[in-house]
Each structure stands twice: as structure tokens, then as C-alpha cells.
Amino acid sequence: MHAHNAGQVARISCGHCNIKRFYKPLELRQVIGNVTIDQVRAKVRCEKCGRKEYMRAELFHPVGQELETIRFRRLLEIRWEWRLVWRDE
Questions:
Q1: For the CA atoms of 14, 57, 50, 34, what is the dihedral angle to 10 degrees?
Q2: Nearest to 56 by CA among 70, 74, 37
Q3: What DSSP assignment string belongs to 36-89?
Q4: Could you give the C-alpha distances from 12 to 57, 65, 89, in angstroms and in order?
């Protein structure tokens, strides 16, 4: 069963900056792919400090008051950048 169907929420935090962000598992799946939560930790980088080594990721079931106070980061769009790289010969 997928975490989204089970009602779980993904919490990704940086131990260096002490920032916590909450995501819907279905949206993380669109961006990162169908991977385990342990693999998500290895694929994300902190937006504030830019480090990967302090990142933590976990799934949990929010309950009651906690669910009302969570602010989710929602996926608006996925943009693909097209960059040209030239080589002189």
C-alpha cells in the first residue's frame, strides 16, 4: 500500500538548519519516483544551506491538532530546463 493511501505525511528536515517541511507522498512520488522513504533522504538537498548530509526523511500519521497546524509544500509545476552545452573543436 502506498503511503498516500494510508494517510501518511512525509516530513523532511535538515539537522543543520533545523527546518522541517511537510509533503504529500503522492507529490514526492511524482518528483523523486517510486522509492522508499530512506532513498528520499539521499535524493533531497536543503534549500537553505544546500547540504545533503544532514537531511532526515520520515513518514508519519498526523493526528488531531497536529494535522490542522501542518503547512504542506505543494507541487505547482515541473519545469524542465533545456541548456545548450558547446564544445570547441
A1: -170
A2: 37
A3: -HHHHHHH---TTT--STTEEEEEE---THHHHH--B-----------------
A4: 4, 20, 45
C-alpha cell at 69: 497546524
Running DSSP on this structure, what letter comes out for residue 34? S
Query: CB-based contacts of 59: which residues, under 8 Å, 6+ apart?
Result: 3, 8, 9, 10, 11, 25, 37
Per-residue model confidence as pLDDT tens digits over 4-58: 777 789 999 999 999 999 999 888 888 888 888 889 888 899 989 999 999 999 9
> Which residue type sits at 17?
C
Global pTM value: 0.79
Give residue 78's identity as a one-letter amino acid code: I
Q: Which residues contact 13 (CB under 8 A, 6 or more apart)?
A: 19, 20, 21, 55, 56, 57
